[in-house]
Design goal:
The protein is mainly beta. The chain folds into 3 domains: 61 residues, SH3 type barrels, CATH 2.30.30; 59 residues, Nucleic acid-binding proteins (OB fold (Dihydrolipoamide Acetyltransferase, E2P), Beta Barrel); 57 residues, Nucleic acid-binding proteins (OB fold (Dihydrolipoamide Acetyltransferase, E2P), Beta Barrel). 2% of the residues lie in helices and 54% in strands. It has a 6-stranded antiparallel beta sheet with strand order 1-6-2-3-4-5, with no helix packed on it. Strands 9-8-7-10-11 form a 5-stranded antiparallel beta sheet. A 5-stranded antiparallel beta sheet has the order 14-13-12-15-16, with no helix packed on it. A hairpin with a 5-residue loop joins strand 3 and strand 4. It is flat.
Length: 185
């Protein structure tokens, strides 16, 4: 059991029959009353978000999450196959389990998979990946001063906005959390 005053961003707990991760938290001290804790949680299985208030004396059931390092092997439709780097097992996860980051996966990308009771919950990609541009419009000479951008399709199938001076075949760095162009590799 964990006291609600010990909740921090990223803490995972079991509550209301589901598995939840703390997104935000705030301690509130009310004049003559007791302290109160307000926290925003994300459901690890459905992705829904809920905000709850607790008295400072309440407790929640904390859970043990196992983190496994895996390497992405290949995708077959909405099924993504990984290889555990320790046991060499090859679990297959769905696009829903991976989330929006699936568009930045390329072969041999190392990820962290969160497991609870031998069940995969969440896939965490590296914050920055290097991907090759396979299609983009050519930049127009003289447009570099305007600071504009153009869409570029990457080898993983994702589309990101890049500066006008970037051409096909170049390798760029992309932030997997926001999908933004960070620079050339």
């Amino acid at each position: 059991m964990i006291s609600v005053t010990d909740l921090r961003t990223g803490t995972k707990v079991e509550m209301d029959g589901g598995l939840w991760e703390v997104i935000e938290y705030q301690h509130q001290k009310i004049g003559r009353g007791g302290a109160k804790m307000v926290a925003k949680f994300r459901n690890l299985e459905t992705g829904s978000i809920v905000e709850r208030s607790f008295n400072a004396t309440e407790k929640l059931q904390d859970i043990f999450i196992e983190y496994r390092e895996m390497s992405f092997l290949y995708a077959d439709g909405d099924q993504y196959t990984f290889m555990d780097l320790e046991t060499y097992e090859q679990p297959t996860l769905t696009r829903e389990q991976i989330g929006d980051g699936a568009r930045f996966l390329k072969e041999n990308t190392e990820v962290t998979v969160d497991y609870y009771q031998n069940r995969p919950l969440k896939v965490t990609l590296p914050n920055v990946v290097e991907l090759k541009i396979v299609q983009t419009d050519p930049g127009v000479r003289g447009d570099t001063v305007s600071g504009g951008s153009k869409p570029a399709t990457l080898e993983s199938g994702a589309t990101v906005n890049v500066p006008l001076f970037i051409d096909e075949g170049e390798v760029i760095r992309v932030d997997t959390r926001t999908g933004e162009y960070l620079g050339r590799a």
